[in-house]
Amino acid sequence: MASTAPRRQTLTCEDGCRPKDLSHASRGYRRALVIVVALNLAMAVAEMFGGLLGKSQALKADALDFLGDGTITLLALIAISHGPGWRARAALLQGMFLTVLGLGVIGAAVYRIIERRLPDAEVMTWFGAAALAVNVASALVLIPHRKGDANVRAVWLFSRNDALGNVAVLIAAGLVFWTGTPWPDLVTAGLIGGLFLHSAVDIIRDARRELRVVAQPSRTVAAERT
User: Fold this and answer.
1) What is the DSSP string of 91-145?
2) How far apart are CA 33 and CA 25, in angstroms?
């Protein structure tokens, strides 16, 4: 006689399902996050010093980006040992934090328009190049893990933003040297702030979608074989 033990079949959910990528739980991903935290926090201190030394708002904005990356990546490192709901809430917090950073950077850039201090293009170049090297290293470490839940994608977006911001700082340094005005530095700081806000919207949208999915009861059906 055939077994009558019930066979449980899990139905896949509809639009809005979390990705089935489990990179957030791998040892390799944990190691990658530790490396990224260390690189970002160290560069945040160095680049803020460079921003103060060179009177560059773009460098200061990028330093805040590094600080945000290090802090939020540390939060992601803590979140990977928790369930999907906790990770989605952590990603939501990441998006909110990035929103605050973006608004702060834009506000500071507007304030600096009044002062119009000419930044040091040479200092901007050296620190911008160092920051770019750090971000390329972070991005290479994270590339294998860039797809996954909102928490994983948030970490990837932070690192990508850093690299783009560094390229912008280097371009701004060249334009400051060429034009002899602070405008390229201020415009670049504003663009970095705008990039923060754009990524924050993506992160918050993904996190809210995953929170809705977590809140839905699991739908299973039992089928009997005779």
Assistant:
1) HHHHHHHHHHHHHHHHHHHHHHHHH-PPP-HHHHHHHHHHHHHHHHHHHHHHGGG
2) 12
170: its two tokens: 């280097």
**Helices marked H in the chain:** 27-54, 57-79, 84-115, 121-142, 150-179, 183-215
Nearest Cα residue to 74 out of 60, 50, 93, 96: 93
Q: Report the length, in residues, of the chain.
A: 226
Widest CA span of the chain, in angstroms? 89
Calpha distance 192→164 (Å, rounded) = 8
Q: What is the pTM of this model?
A: 0.63
Q: Which domains does the chain have, with CATH numbers?
A: 32-216 (1.20.1510.10)
Task: Give me the amino acid identity at 68.
Answer: G
Dihedral, CA of residue 63, residue 65, residue 70 and residue 71, to nearest 10 = 110
The residue type of 164 is L
* pLDDT tens profile 11-21: 344 444 444 44
Here the tokens at position 112 are: 């600096």
The pLDDT > 90 percentage for the chain reads: 3
Confidence of residue 194 (pLDDT cuts 50, 70, 90): confident
Query: How many CA atoms within 13 Å lie on the side-chain side of 138?
Result: 32
Six-digit token pair at 34?
A: 């530790």
